[in-house]
Amino acid sequence: MRIIDWTRRYPMVAATIAVGLFGLLLLAFGQQVVSGWLVSGYALAIAAWQAWHMIGDLRRGAFGLDVLAVLAITSTVLVGDHWAALIVALMLTGGEALEDYATSRAHQEVSALLERAPHHAHRANAEGTFTEVPISEVVIGDVVMVRPGEVVPVDGVLEGDACWFDESSLTGESLPVEHQPGDLVLSGTVSQQTVAIIRAEASAKDSQYQQIIDLVEAAAETKSPIVRLADRYAVPFTAISLIIAGVAWWLSGDPVRFAEVLVVATPCPLLIAAPVAFLAGMSRAAASGVIVKSGAVMEALSRVRTVAFDKTGTITHGQPVVDVIEAAEGVNPDDVLALAAAAEKYSAHVLATTIVNAAVERGLSVPDATDVAEVTASGMTATILGRRTAVGKADHVEAVTGHRPATGEVPPGHIAIYVGTDDGPVGRVLLADEVRSHAAATLSALHHLGVRNVAMLTGDTEATGRHVAEKVGIDEVRAGLLPADKVACMTELPLRPVAMVGDGVNDAPVLAAADIGIAMGARGATAASESADVVIMLDDLSRVATSIAIAQRTVRVALQAIWLGIAISVVLMVVAAGGLLPAIVGATLQEFVDLAAIVAALRAVRPGADERQLSRDLRQLPASPAREVQPALAA
What we know:
Distance between the termini: 89 Å
Largest sheet: 7 strands, mixed
CATH architecture of the domain at 317-434: 3-Layer(aba) Sandwich
CATH class of the domain at 317-434: Alpha Beta
Strand order of the largest sheet: 10-22-21-20-11-18-19
Helix content: 40-55%
Number of helices: 24
CATH topology of the domain at 317-434: Calcium-transporting ATPase, cytoplasmic domain N
Shape: elongated
Low-confidence stretches: 222-227, 622-635
Structural class: alpha+beta
Oligomer: single chain
Strand content: 15-25%
């Protein structure tokens, strides 16, 4: 059964082997002439089939290496070495099988990803029991149970007890991660040790794991011209091969030498090496949580000279945090935050939520507030501990309490929330969008990888942009930009190719306009990830450097495999030109050259030294700096 399946999958290979076996059988019965005609006729038919495809390529303006294979078969038949012609034909028809094997090996990470995709979920019913249903039937709000060792089917919020999850399929991190009740758990992770109860936050088709699968399948189906990287060597390699073959014939006076040289000049290793290397590199990237949508993107990514970043949500986390607490004379900084939280807990504003969360995280006792009122775009008023209290802008605090807060200068990149009572100013809380801990190291790594210019394109003010740029080492800042302005700036950046890194819907236009658009897609399917060429499936900025390192190694391995094939072929051609390599032996050796090129190309599926060093450097990064607390604010 396995032989039948293999024959159906590779009919041309099976036909070539069958012709060879039948030809040998004819020889065994003394039918040398019939055997020769059969083998020669079949080999010429293969040559004609290859020539037809070659003519089609030439009409499209593409010159490939197929001409050498056609000449090798034709010349060996003409000089009477029909068995050598059949081996060359086997090499041509067997190239598909070899490439398919190599592709399967290169796609091992991707294949594992697809095979692990969940198809069913254990959903709670009205009686409180769980029944197995197709994951397509799970809707937002459904409660699903994930047993130990099972894949989380949909994105959802953890309920019940804390659980450990294996997130290696999404992050590449081998250590399990503990999630507490209320944490978001992404589909594709695996429950460890205990049963996890999850309330669905998205349907299966909108969940993280399905987005990864969709992107991987789209990338796998993309046929890019770059996988024919060897074609750029087609003309010189063909010319050199014909010159060596012609000189060998001229010096020896024997046309057999011409055929013997061309037999070992057949191009299969060059045609196979590049696509295998690119598929291996794309598989390696997928295992690192980076989806590269095509081989052409991989090649362009390896040559990037400028990387431009959006600021909010990319260089920074995109969420404000309490950075500095400045207290008035004689006031405890914790009291400043507690008073602010007491009033702000009644507001739905994102900055209010940040202050309340900070108070909770510090374990502060937040007093009760009465007579709470919110003044739109100004702040909150309330009675707290018997005092009229105002929280918000300085003018608002002064209008409510009659006391002007000591404002001072607000540092770039910060927002000040003032706190005061009818007894006087209390202090202020400075909020900031925290820079990612990996940002500076990532930008340093990009320079090490050959990126000559790192720019920031942001809609924030010049002062805020410069403040962040100085922290992380950005070379060029362009601030105050609308989405259309970012697109215009993209065309002005001189050092190309240019990669743009962003995460939001407003980044979609500039990602599409860049030579390579890189989307931070950890939050799921967005317009940004759909318009990008590379999608980083994790909330990890360092993967930008990792993706470029993988791309550079992939192209380097592809070129090494190509040059290995060229070098071995040239050596064999010189040996054949001296009459030391019969055509049938040369044709057989070419099969080993194929395997050598494939093995060399498959090295791209493993991390290179640069990538391993980059990973070690990023793991050794210090933690984010601690928040500052200022004991007193001058009056």
